[in-house]
Amino acid sequence: MMQPTEIVSKMFENDAFSQWLGISVDRVSVGKCELSMIIRSEMLNGFGIAHGAITYALADSALAFASNSHGRQSVSIDTSINHIETLKAGDRITATAKEEALKNKFGFYTIEIKKENTIVALFKGTVFRSEKVWQ
Fold first, then answer.
1. Between β-strands 32-38 and 24-29, what pairing exists: parallel, antiparallel or unpaired?
2. Handedness of CA 34, 76, 7, 66 (dihedral sign)
3. Is the sign of the CA dihedral 56, 62, 66, 68 positive or negative?
4. Judging by beta carbons within 10 Å of its beta carbon (0-12, 13-18, 19+), is residue 71 exposed, middle or buried?
5. Which long-range contacts (CB under 8 A, 24 or more apart) does 35-40 make?
6. Which of 12, 56, 64, 103 has the fewest CB atoms inside 10 Å of its own CB, making it the most exposed?
7. pLDDT, tens digit (0-9, with 9 covering 90-100), for 98-127
8. How far apart (Å, rounded) are the C-alpha atoms in residues 37 and 46?
9. What is the DSSP letter of 40?
10. What is the C-alpha separation between 127 and 76, in angstroms, rounded?
11. 46-97 pLDDT, tens per residue?
12. Which sign, positive or negative, has the C-alpha torsion 130, 73, 33, 64?
């Protein structure tokens, strides 16, 4: 069976969007993942702050990596986010995915997105766990 770091490396290698975001995979273990990235000027909306899709995308990648770390291919089926603080170009943010519950067919996760020690967004995700294993 593949190790969590091997699975995430394989996933990231084929994930052009996460690469475009400039995501760094900082930590991976079974059911957990920590990612980071820096907000760039092309990620800002008309208000001059980070588009909400940026923190959403970072959290979604953390969900994908954490949920697949068990070795079974998993895909999100329900996600939501609360945007709490604004972000500007140059801000470094981290997303920490934590597994809340794992069942045979479903996994439940929360992801905190922080700038330094301040929570800027909270993300919740549910995944469907297929029978297909990572090889």
1. antiparallel
2. positive
3. positive
4. middle
5. 35/61, 35/62, 35/65, 35/94, 35/95, 36/92, 36/93, 36/94, 36/95, 37/92, 37/93, 38/90, 38/91, 38/92, 38/93, 39/87, 39/88, 39/89, 39/90, 39/91, 39/92, 39/93, 40/89
6. 103
7. 999 999 999 999 999 999 999 999 999 999
8. 21
9. -
10. 4
11. 999 999 999 999 999 999 999 999 999 999 999 999 999 999 999 999 999 9
12. negative
Residue in the block written with tokens 């923190």: 55
Rounded distance between C-alpha atoms, residue 39 and residue 92, angstroms: 6
The CA-based angle 14-18-21, given to 5 degrees, is 145
Radius of gyration (C-alpha) of the chain in whole angstroms: 14
Written as six digits, the tokens of 9 are 């490396």
What amino acid is encoded at 93 in this protein? Answer: I
Non-local CB neighbours of 46 within 8 Å, separated by 6+ positions: none
Backbone torsions φ then ψ of 117, nearest 5 degrees: -100, 10
pTM over 0.90: yes
